[in-house]
Structure prediction request, 236 residues.
Amino acid sequence: MSELKSAKIFSDAKSALEGVKDGMTILVGGFGLCGIPENLILALRDSGAKNLTCVSNNAGVDDFGLGLLLHTRQIKKMISSYVGENATFEKLYLSGELELEFCPQGTLAERVRAGGAGIPAFYTPTGVGTLIAEGKDVREFDGRPYVMERGITGEFALVRAWKADTFGNLVFRKTARNFNPMMATAGRITVAEVEEIVPLGELDPDQIHTPGIYVQRIIKSVKLEKRIEQRTTRLG
Prediction:
């Protein structure tokens, strides 16, 4: 990587998170344990920043992913759609130590996408008539009720990609493409952790998932566990 020069490329995860402070909203990409920015999450934990609001599809597991920050009590509030793999999350929530804004998965994805597109709010039929809609504006369109949901943005977005070029154009791989692309658009500062950095012009423009205009900082992963959340096997 020595021959790849760019103001966007940072030497390590710690330096790439410069500016993270207490009380910030941090968007974190990934789906389950797939495609999560492992090195950036570790650096966020080590930064000591607390009272964070984290927006992520899930909260990792007890000893991995965002579960590490729950263990250290650095997260004050989670905005998520699935939290079923984390016993620490359950304990903190039931004891009142952790706030939770539960959001249907498709709605969460659209809230982040809307935030990145500069759309402050939108209406969706998902959640009408449930606890999700309590306290929110509900209107009727074409004879059907819809609930208003706010777009989501954050001071930082932490994403994980397969490849990046020196401008920050990103390519995601398979399931890691879930949530990472929209998170990348909705952060004031987007930090991309990638497996490979290539020279500008090497990526096929038709294969780029996130344009580099959205990405301010890039680091190369130094170690990836790539854990499997639920291993399933069969005989024969």
Observations:
- The longest strand covers residues 154-165.
- The chain has one domain: 13-122+152-220.
- The first helix runs from residue 13 to 16.
- DSSP finds six helices and eleven strands in the chain.
